[in-house]
Design brief:
3 helices, Lipocalin, mainly beta, 8-stranded antiparallel beta barrel, 12% helix, two-stranded antiparallel ribbon, 10 strands
């Protein structure tokens, strides 16, 4: 009985939880990039999914890594088998959620990730190219090989972020 109580108590103290869609979310959100105007220059396409070939990104689920941005500053990064399948793209399940902000041509992402020590916030920095592609610089890669995400218009997402 005491062991069960300790397990329940420690589970409530964890900094992360899973939402109804299986995504890791912070139990006590403290986002630093949350803002009303994340893209003052209008560099991001909000009717697009940004697609990268998984081989270049190192994701082990699906064939493509995708990022979806919202004008509210939210984004989700996920993996899909077919980036032209709107039903798969519209899925709320899995993925990493977060916020972004653009300063000049530099894009900063903040997402929530779960590791062995619990949940934590991760920041990544990249650039928006003139053609609209997003380059994200990896945290631990030498030589630096940025992950390139190309905007692809495939249809509108039928849900709004809830984090």
């Amino acid at each position: 009985m005491v062991a069960l109580f300790i397990c329940l108590l420690s589970a409530c103290a964890l900094p992360a939880k899973r939402d109804a869609y299986g995504r890791p979310v912070p139990r006590w959100p403290s986002w630093t990039l949350k803002t009303d105007n994340p893209d003052p220059e209008g560099l991001i396409c909000y009717d697009c999914f940004y697609v990268s070939d998984v081989k270049s990104v190192g994701v082990d689920h699906g064939n493509y890594a995708i990022i979806r941005y919202w004008e509210s500053g939210h984004f989700i990064i996920n993996s899909v088998k077919d980036y032209k399948d709107l039903e798969e793209l519209n899925s709320r399940y899995r993925g990493r959620i977060g916020y972004f902000r653009i300063e000049d041509f530099r894009i900063v992402h903040e997402f929530f990730q779960v590791g062995s020590g619990g949940g934590f916030y991760v920041h990544s920095v990249g650039f928006v190219e003139e053609d609209g592609s997003v380059l994200i610089m990896p945290k631990k890669s030498y030589p630096l090989n940025p992950e390139k995400y190309i905007p692809v218009k495939v249809g509108k997402v039928d849900w709004e972020p809830d984090w």
